[in-house]
Amino acid sequence: MRARKHAHDSTKQTSNPTRPIRRITFRTMNRFKTTAVSAPTKMPRLITRIAVAVTAIVAFGLASGSDSTAIAQTPSVEILNHSAVSKLPDGIEFSANVVGDVEEVTARFSIIGRRATQYDYLEFGEPAIYSTAAPANGNLFYRTDTLARYLPPGVTMEYRIEVLDSSGTLHESEPTQMVLTDSRFEWDTVSDGGVTVYFHGPVTTRATSLLNASLETIDNMAPVLGIEPEGAPITVTMYNNIAEMTDATADRSGAISRELITEGQAFSPENTVLVQGGSNRATGTMSHELTHVLLSRAVSGARSSVPVWLNEGLAEYGNIDPGVSYDTYLEWGIDTNRILPLTSLGTFPGDPDLVIVSYGLGRSVARFMVEDFGPGKMAALLAEFNSSRRFDESMIKVYGVDRRGMDELWREFVGALPLSDEVVIIAPTSAPMPTFIPYTLDNLGAAPTSTPGPQAKATPEPTDAPEVEASDAPEHEDESGGGGCFAAPGAPIEGGMAFLIVAVGSAAAIRTVRGKITHL
Ligand SMILES: [Zn+2]
Known about the structure:
The protein has helices spanning 24-29, 45-63, 68-72, 204-225, 242-248, 282-298, 308-317, 325-335, 352-371, 377-386, 391-399, 403-414, 421-424, 427-430, 440-443, 460-464, 493-504, 507-519, and strands at residues 13-14, 78-86, 91-102, 104-111, 117-121, 128-130, 136-143, 156-164, 170-172, 176-179, 188-192, 195-199, 234-239, 264-267, 272-276. The chain is an alpha+beta fold. It folds into two domains: 10-179, Immunoglobulin-like, CATH 2.60.40; 188-519, no CATH class. Strands 1, 4, 5, 8, 9 and 10 form a six-stranded antiparallel sheet that branches. It has a five-stranded mixed sheet with strand order 11-12-13-15-14. The longest helix has 22 residues, at 204-225. It is elongated. The relative contact order is 0.12. The model is unreliable at 1-72, 253-260, 422-484 and 486-520 (pLDDT under 50).
């Protein structure tokens, strides 16, 4: 899934996490049923409130007969009960029973790891005074089945119910946290070391192997990345086949995505990973995706994303069961001089073959940077980058060379042709892009600078193809992401090639890439 510019769910998001900003615009978009006395303009707000109150008192007075004290006292608002039920991938169902002077009932929620708070209004009938015998029954189905509102299963939500009374006083429930699981299945879990694997069906052994892969990855990569092994809890949702997985991803709306193999997706700020456990490389995928999550912790303070070649390169370096495809593609890329300069790989190229070459390149360069410059260098680089330093500045400080310099060293190391000036001219068009483009899904409330967790994967490329002209292919300046990885192409090379090429039909894109290299 290629990115749309939808960094924020703007209709229902506010930077103020505590109170709904009461503007007239909310009236037009909320589901709250305005009454006849609720005038369509902002001006008569006070009048409206008085009118509602009068109406309520009259109603109450009628109901309670001659008891004049009851008329004078408005029952205080009480939230009798409330609930939220995950209906992912379709949505979240909120409900609440409320008594007292009820003007408006709101569900306010946030996803742990994201900054933004969302809210929406529960439908409950008319604003009025509700009694315990007949409380206001508020309901809201908050849909998540659009790309902009997509939530990966396994995220943790915190929500509370807010009730506004006619005097403008806000009454809140205590915040409640819950994991939003995929509602299509009954889940079991195995967990250890801060990682919980959700699985369904008789696949405990497989789930346990994913858990062990996660723990092994943390052991391996925490020191490399310079992070503590302990961190926020991580949830892994393991699916048993591609179809299950596809329906849980944001890609599911794309017709072509049925043909794609999404083995895993990482949602770093949310500490959530989806893995297709039916794959014979599932543990490799698990470790790759988990490394994205760990890497994002190392650079959570950075002002831009780690370039994709390093993000994917480290994820593959952390892969405990890597396939051979990337190496083979890399050799092909080296032999045919198709290796793109690192400076042009802030995002991956559009051509699927070059994407796989770039994964291989990323892993090879990451291994080179981790293993051939002395211990602690990668952690030091990430620490510098995390302290708001630019990437090249961080590189120079720690490695003594910038990306281009590292590129040259690596090419010498593996025996690739040196960078040519012709190729390098591409660099200025890519290098100044200050942020390497935060990817989409994480942008839903995440710090735009936080992390590169899910990254351009091979799988999004085909989705991209029908919409992007060939001439755009190498640019990829659209908001990239979708968050996921073509982590470990387990298929034979030929199969991988066929799958990607069939999916994309990319001859034009390849030509374009060549054209760029040749002519710029
Ligand atoms: Zn990845």
